[in-house]
Structure formats: C-alpha cells, structure tokens
Design goal:
The protein is of the alpha/beta class. Among the domains are: about 195-280, no CATH class; about 295-343, no CATH class. The protein has 8 helices and 11 strands. The strands form 5 sheets. The protein has a 3-stranded parallel sheet with strand order 2-1-3. A hairpin with a 5-residue loop joins strand 10 (about 320-325) and strand 11 (about 330). Helix 2 (about 85-110) runs antiparallel to helix 3 (about 115-130) and helix 6 (about 155-170) packs parallel to helix 7.
Length: about 350
Amino acid sequence: MTGRIPKTPVNTVNDAPAVGSIVSKWFERRDVGIPNYICNAPNGRHGIDVFAMGSAYLGPSYVPFTVPGNPDDKDFEVKNVSLSKDVEDRLDDRSTLLAGFDRLRRDIDQTGLMGAQDHFHQKAVGLITNNRTRDAFDLSKEPDELRNKYGRHCWGQRALLARRLVEAGSKFVTMVMENPYKSGVEWLKNGTYNWDSHAVNCHLFDDAKVRLPILDRAIATLIEDLYDRGLDKKVLLVVTGEFGRTPRISVTKGSQTGVDQPGRDHWPQAMSVLVSGGGMRTGQVVGSTNAKGEHPHERPLTPSDFWATIYKHLGINPAHEYPDYSGRPMPILPFGHSISELI
C-alpha cells in the first residue's frame, strides 16, 4: 500500500503513507463536494491499520473517509453527512464562532493535531452542507437491472458503489472485498472469511468455488460499466491482494473441519495484479514467472513500479517530497518506474 519497504513485513501500522493518503495530500486543495479518498470495508474491519491504509507522517487529515458496512444492506447508511433543517439554519453562526476559537488554538498548538482537527472540521462542514456525497452513496438511484447484473450482495454492490463515487469526483476509492459469506451464500464449514487460504483455514478448492464466481461477476460488470459510460479513459481499475500464494499445495488438518484439506500459504516472491481502463494499453500480460510460478522470469516488476504507473495516471510526481516526522524530505516513491507497456 505504500511502495516502500517497511521496517517490518508483518506490521500493518504504516511507517510511510499509503498511496491513497498521498493522493489525498496531493489533491488537498481540490474540493468537488466529495472526499478525494474513500474506503468501504466490512464492519469491524474498517480501521486504517487493518489493511495498512494509514497516513503515517502526513498526519491524520489524510486518512480515508471510511464508510463501514455492506452497501446492499437495507439499513446501510453514510453517517454524519446530513443535518436536520433547524441545525442547518444555525450552522453558519456556529462555524464562524468555531473559526475564531480554532485560530486561537492553532496559535498555541505545536503538535499539528489541532490543525488536523480544523481540517476535519472543514471537511465535515463541507460534507453535511451539500448533497453530493450522500447522493453518490445512494445505490437506490441505480436501475434494478444494473444492480442485479453486478450481483445483489456486498461485493457486487461495492463494485457499483465504487463506480458511483469516482463518477461523482472522488480521486481514490478502495473497496475491500474480503468475506464472500456476506454475499448471500451459505457459510461453508471448510471455508474462510478472507483470502488467507492456508489449509488450516479452509479447503482451497471448495472455498474458491464460492468466492471466485462472485468476484468475477462483480469485477467483469464493473469493467463493462466503466467502458459503457466512457469512463475507461478517466478511471484506472486495480484488483489486487497483498502477495501471492505458494505454488505448491500443502495439506493440513482444518481447524474447523478436523480433516485433512488442501491449501496454500504466503508467497511474496511472485504475484499478479489486474488493471483495466485508465486509458492504458490493456488486453495483455506483462511479465512472467518460471514454469512453476515461483519467481519472476521475464520483466520482473516491483510494487513501486506499479504505483509509479498509477501516480503517472493521476498526474502525481513520484519524486515530490514531503517531510517525515523528523522533518527530513521523503520522496513519494524512493524507487520505481512506470510500466512502459501500459502507458
């Protein structure tokens, strides 16, 4: 999520800003009535440190606008983006008074925390005094035929919601598609809630038969929808996990089933990423592994090369520097080049 080699490979508390936070910082003066960085994740899994989406030394102003929950739930809502009429009528006077206090607090604050709170306050006032954000999250505005095509479950409706959010003007949207058993399918005793397909967690093939058709339908429909609307030049779609899985299948007794079952373990040496749109040259495979899928063979690439490509699409200079906690200038990316085959 950062394009940097972390201090530890297992800690999800960022020591460098996630790419979405960089995007939020770069476009901080851009205000179109909807947050520049949005994330939708399952309830209970929506903390920024769960998926390494923290802003690190950029500060708390640049974490995602996070909306937890299943967009397909009837009671799904985006909290704190509307006001009752009587409160709205008094908002201007209260905002003016708060601004005076904020200026005083900033003058005596040396940590930057109050400045971040001011930033949050400005964002909050902007969100609750216009309808654009609330409307963008309202899937009831979409025809049933299209909603059904995506799939009437959380993964399908998250994909549709992503399209609505970027169409409304958000610069960077992350949709977490983690648990297929929130998508209207019966829980498998030999399945697992996330993609951690160790044999101890799940029966790899039985679990895949549940989750892959759901993912395939949601992503394929999203790609078609983006192209049908002419958004394929503007919107770059990325579908990725955090690393690959072992080429060789292991067999272990499952913790839920108590019987031997197949699975795969962590494998950071090689993985694949799907990209679509962005005005890029798609319809190709860039790079390869050896015959066993163990290591890169032709055209090895790093996550930083991938992020450099995304930054180029967004018009962000990856050599630009932001100060870290100690004030040292840190480039957005320490290394990496955009993938020429795609540009």
